Amino acid sequence: MENGDSKVRIGFYVCHCGTNIAHTVDVASVAKYAAGLPGVVVARDYKYMCSDPGQDLIGEDIREHGLNRIVVAACSPCLHEATFRTATARAGLNPFFCHLVNIREHASWVHTDRAAATEKVQDLVRAACGRVRHHKALERKRVTVRPEVLIVGGGIAGIQAALTIAESGKKVYLVEREPTIGGHMAMFDKTFPTLDCAACILTPKMSQVKAHPNITLWTYSEVMGVEGFVGNFKVKVRRKPRYVNEEVCVGCMECIEACMYKQPKFDDEFNQRLGKRKPVYIPFPQATPKVVLIDPETCLHFKTGKCKQPCIASCSRNAFDFNAEEKIEDVEVGAIIVATGFKPFDPARSPKYGYGHFPNVYTSLEVERLVNASGPTGGEIVMRDGRKPKSVGIVHCVGSRNLQTNRWCSKVCCMYSLKLAHLIKEHAGAEVYNFYIDMRTPGKGYEEFYNQLLEEGVHFVRGKVAEVTDWAMTPEEEGKLVMRVEDTLAGFVRRIPVDMVVLSVGLEPREDSQEVRRMFNISCSSEGFFLERHPKLAPVDTATDGVYLAGACQGPKDIPDSVAQAGAAAAQAMALIDKGYIEMEPNTAFIEEKECSGCKSCIPLCPYTAISFNEATVKAVINEALCKGCGTCVAACPSGSIKQNLFEDVEIFSEIEEVLANA
Amino acid sequence: MAVRVHQTIKYEAEADPTFAPRIKEKRGCEKLEACIQCGTCSGVCPLSIYMDHTPRQVILLTRSGFRDEILKSNTIWLCASCYECTVSCPKDIRITDIIYSLKQEAIQARAYPRRFPIPVLAREFYKMVRDFGRTTESFLVVKLLMKTNILAGLKMWKLGLQLVTSGRFGFTPESIKNRRQLQQILDRVGDDNGKNGGPKK
């Protein structure tokens, strides 16, 4: 034993915690009992050990009695371990010579028999005094934190977080998969409840991102891999070729005009395939960066090699580069904000609504494009059959609140359905029916907006639509889509014929959320949205230090919520990088190199990917900065060559021996 | 015509607080209380347009304990067991099974019209299966008609005659081997069912 029994001088303190502990545990007799344990020099009880006089008591005793071990029997280490370690350190003793025994949550709060509880506390105290004599002086390591931040996803959440951090003077890398930033918000027409135009409030922010000297914007790019740990992440980004030099193109769009295809012929993804585009295109007029790109899947040159390439001829700036290849960028960052957003539910999974079967059944996102002035119809609501609808049915909760699809409420659909009802009435003068289960409009100005819609004469039917059919049962239903639904407030079944059906699709995790989760070493909740560290008190942190969440990738969220969360994620990231360093708890695992056989069994078990393999020495290596001290590898190592600070065998076994000594 | 006025108010004393927990205990009825009253069941039901209470209302009334209201309702007897509601329910509530439990409750309480054929059919069907291991439809139909509506039975003589002449009317009861074993099995189940409102031995 490093310190030898004779040299160990333990100070023992038992806390009354007011009456929380003293009511059920005879603290005076515990102190008396501890005084008789080997190595204990001082044993005291005190009303509030965590108070300043309580802490001072420890310091005074260390100085006066030359104590070198401290045991405090009090509340949970979660609450006051740091308090007592700091008090110990203030008196000049290594803080890891201080050990806490939880006799509140583990004894006084869970027992009623005072004598038995006191006896149990004595056992626990004896065990603590047994283990603390083996404690070693440990050091917290400092790791520097790089000042750059990576933001993954250029929707409104990513944009907001990027601008906030960039404004503070820190460098930001913003990586977006699509050719433009803006995300789903850029597709929306107006925003609830104020009905301000989405583009009018979003595009200035997009331009700001592009122009900001502290933001490196990589669109049409994806994060391929992340290595490292908090403060020191190494990130690989793949930049897909646009076949147009981003630095040179100014987005004059002469080339689009010049393309061999005189008419747009290919489905326009940005317009939800309701419109057409050419192989050389720009997703929408305010796309950021305002740069064209070529879709090699449809471009004649790439498909046949026989195109005259009038696009090249039309470009006065010589921006085309048909030989461009993908580029890999390596960056190092201190923090990462994941803002990868959501995916709208595909209503083909609920065939009773006839999406994909009846042409006049639309998703809500398609209707956003239809009512948008820069959309495929110039803002006129014209259906796929060329008619303008005189009556429209909006079905809420499509792919939400349903165990057969997604069980959660998507939170935003009630409000955007109200908005679409308003816009459809305004643009087409149609009769609009909203079919809802429960109207959920909590939020500033949201209920007022619902009231406005009621007064505008929009119809509300409380009931989930059972089916959409074209089978007419009355002359009025001929040529219409009929919605069969129980009007649950009236208590009978109704059939309501309409021209157009809008499905208010819910929000779900993106298809690749599992890969993204693995790449950033974060978790998903059961439904597949990324998991925050704490649902109330750490809503933007993840279980991995230095990785934060913003926007709908964490759960369905509207624009105000996404923006607020992005601000919070930015603040968390800045708090980390502004400090410049992090202190690591020393309860990490370490390898006795000469005993490691290099079997690699620990490597896949580590939940924090902290263990790697050194091919040169044929030994496993633990990265202290990544290790969280969970002990999995320690238990798994077949040769017993992995040990953990504060949990070494001698510490644990002496604790067990002592706790069982009277059994 | 005079306007008829009667009180529609329900007092909590009229509700049976043991009703919902009792139904919930039965097989298939466990998720009774998960209902969010969306009305999908009523919307998809091919017969809800004839019901005095829609299936959704039946779930609501059961959950709230208005036992008499439900047992008086024609809904449980109109249910054709097509299971469309059960298949469509967004909360996985087995509405058809719940309606079966309510039928059992009504049969036990004799809360149905005199000579109402459905409970008679249930009892005769069970008896025949217990005795022979099989049902013989000709015997079953005749028994049912005799116990519920003899007149209607006699009016069907022409159809009966056609069935007899075309050899569709079985005169020998079908049966299985080891009927005793089946009876033992059913008696064991019957004990349980008897408690829960199923057919008595």
Total count of helical runs of at least 4 residues of chain A: 17
In the CATH hierarchy, the architecture of the largest domain in chain B is Orthogonal Bundle
Radius of gyration of chain A: 32 Å
Class from secondary-structure proportions of chain B: mainly alpha
Structural category of chain A: alpha/beta
* Overall pLDDT score of chain A: 95
The residue-averaged pLDDT of chain B reads: 89
Task: Name the CATH superfamily classification of the largest domain in chain B.
Answer: Alpha-helical ferredoxin
Largest sheet of chain B: none
State the end-to-end distance of chain A: 26 Å
**Largest interface: which pair?**
A-B, 22 and 20 residues
Strand proportion of chain B: under 5%
Shape of chain B: globular
Largest sheet of chain A: 5 strands, parallel
Describe what you observe in this structure:
The complex is a heterodimer of chains A (663) and B (201). With 663 residues, chain A is of the alpha/beta class. Chain A has 17 helices and 34 strands. In chain A, the strands form twelve sheets. A five-stranded parallel β-sheet of chain A has the order 10-7-6-18-29, with helices on one face. In chain A, helix 6 crosses helix 7, helix 11 packs parallel to helix 12 and helix 12 packs parallel to helix 13 (446-455). The model of chain A is unreliable at 1-5 (pLDDT under 50). By secondary structure, chain B is mostly helical. Chain B folds into two domains: 12-109, Fumarate Reductase Iron-sulfur Protein, Chain B, domain 2 (Orthogonal Bundle); 117-194, no CATH class. Chain B has helices at 19-24, 40-44, 55-64, 67-72, 75-78, 84-88, 95-108, 117-132, 137-148, 150-155, 157-165, 179-195. In chain B, helix 8 runs antiparallel to helix 9. In chain B, 26% of the residues are buried. The model of chain B is unreliable at 192-201 (pLDDT under 50). Chains A and B meet through strand 25 of A and helix 2 of B.
